[in-house]
Amino acid sequence: MLRQAKKEVSAIRNKSLFNIVGMLLSFIAIVILWLFFSFNSWTTHAGLTIFLFAIAVSTFMLYKSHQLIAKNDFTTDPNEFLNNLKSYQLSRFSLYSKIYWVYAIALSLGITLYFFEILAYFDLWAQCLIILFTFGWIVFCSTLVRKAVMKKEKERIALLIEKFERLGNQFKEPI
After folding, report:
1. Scanning 149, 157, 173, 175, which has its CA 20 to 30 A from the CA of 101?
2. Which of 145, 128, 125 lies closest to 137, judged by CA?
3. In its keyword annotation, does this UniProt entry include Transmembrane (predicted)?
């Protein structure tokens, strides 16, 4: 049981790190775009600024959440780790429920401002297609994908908390 718990903790830590790295790569990609392309409109610069700010804040939140499960080993102090795991669960729920909407709104605003200049280079049919696809993708990710990820992660962490509570109870029981 301890081996299985260790494997699950490692998977959660790796997924958390993968999310942070993905956000950092997104941040870097947008900075490179901003540095190497000449944008004329203030709206494009404002949109990219909002993008970068939203990504930076979200990355920071992901990092703070990651610190809750990465900073200590569950074999040295299982109770502290269990408390950190419960805090991690709450922070992830907050991230997916409340903070996510701020992130989605900021990205939508950033995209809208960015599109003022960029879409001018496309034909009307391409503009419509790009706008429909972009906001369709945001709606899809905000509804179906977010709920599925939330449910899966909530179940996974709850199961892990249950395993650690059972492990802790086994060590407390007299032999």
Report:
1. 157
2. 145
3. yes
